[in-house]
Amino acid sequence: MKVNMRLNGRQIEAEAEDNELLLDFIRDRLGVKSVKAACWRGECGTCMAIVNGKAMKTCLMLAVEADGADIITAEGLGGQGGLSPLQRIFVKHGAMQCGFCTPAFVVNVHYLLTENPEASDEEIKEKLSGMICRCGTYNQMLPAIREAKRLYLKRKK
Ligand code: FES
Ligand code: FES
The whole model's pTM is what? Predict the structure, then answer.
């Protein structure tokens, strides 16, 4: 079936198998590589993207279910190929090691702070609890997210 979607601001149309995961469609068919596959069953969060305004694990959706959707991945946060302010804050705090999970965390934090720029540490931990960083950079991520909160708060005003 043909699937149409807006991906990082670009309208695309591509063929998808009926049982093709949105994860595989974005990553393998469309070549958007920040969306990573690690567990394929909703446990690690490395496949996170924003689908119609909500952070979603793309291994839990079929590509055909995303027909007509507006999807943003880490590549789409910065615009014009540059890093977004949130991505720069992650770099500044060294909130990554191997970087495998980082695009997904950045996408989820962007969603979280857009929704609630005043999220408490507890709320942040709870929202990110469905994601795994095998390098264990959680202690670097939290200060980065605290700094980013000020940015998102300013945007909301
Ligand atoms: S690959 Fe989707 S949650 Fe792990
Ligand atoms: S930075 Fe390596 S898995 Fe998170």
Answer: 0.95
